[in-house]
Structure formats: C-alpha cells, structure tokens
What we know:
The protein is an alpha+beta fold. The chain has one domain (5-12, 25-105).
Amino acid sequence: MKGGRFIASVPVTPSMDANPYHLQDFTASSFRKMFINNGLVEIDSFIQKQHYKPLFLFRKKYRQSKNIRLALVNYYLKNPGKFFLRIKSFFKDGFTNKYLVVVFENPGDVGL
C-alpha cells in the first residue's frame, strides 16, 4: 500500500509495574525504531503529559485504581529492574506519565 498513514500513541514512562495490561515498556527511541525499521517515515510527533498524585492511586474512589497492579511490592521483588526504572523515571519526570504520539507514513510500496 502506498502513502498510508499510521497514528500511534504509547507510554514512554514506565507503565508495566502499575498496569498489568502493558506488556512492554518503551522509550521514545525504541518505539520509533520499531516502525522506521519496517519502512515507515515519521511525519510528526508530540508528547502528552499526564500529571498524577501518587497517594490518590491507592484510594478506592480513584477511578483508575482498579487497573493498578494490586501486588506492586511483589511485582517489584520479582522484577527489581522495573523498580529501578520507576525510580529513575521519578527523578527525571516527577509524578508525570508521558505518552508519545507519532504519525508515520508509508512512503512507497514496501509490502506493508
């Protein structure tokens, strides 16, 4: 298919620890690379920021808390690298989740 566009959004701050449905943590670079290696060209991108208050995550009334991994301590014990990734993210971004939104284009017939 020639000239098709694909718009993708992905968290680029750690998310596997708090969201059991996320199977991969991406960086902006690793996410872009996946598409560029398959012949797509980046047209545009931006970062969405979602600030959060960490103590609210554990309140029952917090609407997103049902999706947060309940056994977070056990998860970190089994995946210590993810704990250090979260700490690094905290020092870099504070209490902010970042999402990369990218528009890719298929510049020609590359078999996609």
